[in-house]
What does this fold into?
Amino acid sequence: MRKSTYILLLILPFMLLTACGTSTSTHDEVEVNGSNEISEEAEVNEYNVPVDIESEVIALVRENVAAANNRDVDTYVSQITFEQTIAEMKDYFTTTFSTYESIGLNIEISNEEVVYYKENEAVVKVQQNTRTDEINPESNYQNDAFAIHIVHLTDEGWKIKNTIITKQAWLKEDGTLDELGEIYPATDEVEVWDNHINEMIAQDILPSKYLENLYSEEQTDDLEIQERDLDQPTDLAGIATFLIQHYANVYTVETEEEYMQIIAESFTNYDENYSTYLDAFHGDYTSVDVEVYIDESTLMEYSDFRFGGVIDVTFYLTTPDGQTETVTHFGYYEFDRPSVDDNYKIVSIQ
It folds into this structure.
């Protein structure tokens, strides 16, 4: 079955370092004693960060982007913190940059702001646009994003320690942004992370320590969810069977009355989902084969009866004149579990 992939590229450590959590540098950090004591003569920005620190940090981020655009592996690796060996990182980015060169990938950043500075660490906000020579909907690198970098000062200078995506939307094939997540997953946690930064400032805590505490709390929540998952195993075969039958019915019904009945039976909220498949209903197909792929790693329990996950559905449609059409839908589905005498119901599709 054809699979769509959505490539995450945000100055590259967005993909690598976020997965590492609060990674620790393999280099010795510069020791900075005491709190942020800024002299009265020191010039500061609107966030009370010394402008000389701001200049150094923003220069790092810009040079990091330039290294990615120039496919400069040595410079790029020297500007980030990682747990792997230098040889492993250079091998990884040599291969990665080769791919970027083949598709003409280019990164532009703007609106850089250093919003917090504590001892040897700083928090930087950036806006980033990633483009390639052409849009490939099956392997899409093109996106607009906002992100936060956590940078720290080492004996080799400033380095990027962590990166968090706070907002991201991908370009559709027509060149417009898919801000509503109709085709590609969309992210918008700007307000959430603005609140985290405000908490960080209020606590007067090192950014890395704040993230460590935050991730520790999230891991505790994840453990609770995993324990509940064991008590409420998801019927994967049942979901697949339900979706195959549901879509086969939607694409082949002949009257609007039948269509209305299918939507009423398949969705928790009939009124909100009546128009969901009107295009399919009016497509006049004589038969449909459906393939369903469920990404088990994404399944999440919301309650004893509601759960969700990423599902890839491919439809092979036959028209009255015998022609075949293929349609793929990739999205996040939420379901309500069936009662004793009922079937699964779709809560939402994103």
In short: The chain is about 35% helix and 30% strand.
